[in-house]
Design a protein that fits this description.
- The protein has 207 residues and is α/β, with parallel strands linked by helices.
- It contains 8 helices and 5 strands.
Length: 207
């Protein structure tokens, strides 16, 4: 049986790390075999690309270069990790995927939806998320909760206006793909948000 691909999306500081940890614990208790990945990354080559993307010394990187590096990391991850796991019938959970590129590079960097859709299509090789959990929290609230931007992360250092555009990009993506992308209000506490996510996964027959 073919597996399922679930992706988690949202801006910086929305709580993805916490929610993925809680989901991992839930699935382990239910004895559900799942593979947890992150983007960019998830394998040796993609992790090396991640370091280039996030390196604060690379402040002069163009938006198109950034988008292509993300796509290169994604292509490697899909072919070497995601496709084999899905073919084995496993549940694959990925921290960021195609919608991050749409929001960050397509909208916030101004590259455009059509260009990003073309890059994503090439990188994904026919693979698409079965469900995307969008942790919905505006950037001002998210950074306040997070305690500010990470000084070692080039994208977090981009400033408030950039992250507002990212948030707008996510809202646009959710409007464009309403059946796949489900918004989860992430202004509450972690356990409340976790409960909403589990209810969503149950309603879709995933857990």
């Amino acid at each position: 049986m073919e597996g399922k691909l679930i992706t988690f999306e949202g801006g910086e500081g929305v709580g993805k790390t916490t929610q993925l940890r809680l989901l991992r614990e839930f699935l382990k208790e239910k004895d559900i075999d799942a593979v947890f990945l992150r983007e960019p990354g998830g394998n040796a080559i993609s992790e090396k690309i991640r370091k280039v993307i996030l390196d604060v010394d690379n402040y002069d990187m163009t938006g198109m270069c950034e988008a292509m590096l993300y796509s290169a990391a994604r292509a490697q991850l899909v072919e070497k990790v995601i496709k084999p796991a899905l073919q084995d019938g496993k549940l694959v959970v990925c921290d960021r995927f195609i919608d991050s590129t749409y929001a960050y590079q397509g909208v916030a960097r101004g590259i455009g939806a059509d260009n990003i859709d073309a890059l994503n299509k090439l990188a994904c090789g026919g693979i698409a998320p079965d469900l995307t959990v969008f942790l919905d929290l505006d950037p001002q609230s998210a950074f306040k909760r997070k305690g500010g931007a990470d000084k070692d992360d080039r994208l977090e250092q981009e400033g408030e206006n950039f992250h507002k555009k990212v948030y707008l990009g996510y809202l646009q993506a959710a409007e464009k793909y309403p059946n796949r992308i489900v918004k989860i209000d992430s202004s509450g506490n972690a356990q409340e948000i976790h409960g909403k996510i589990i209810d969503l996964l149950k309603s879709r027959g995933i857990v």
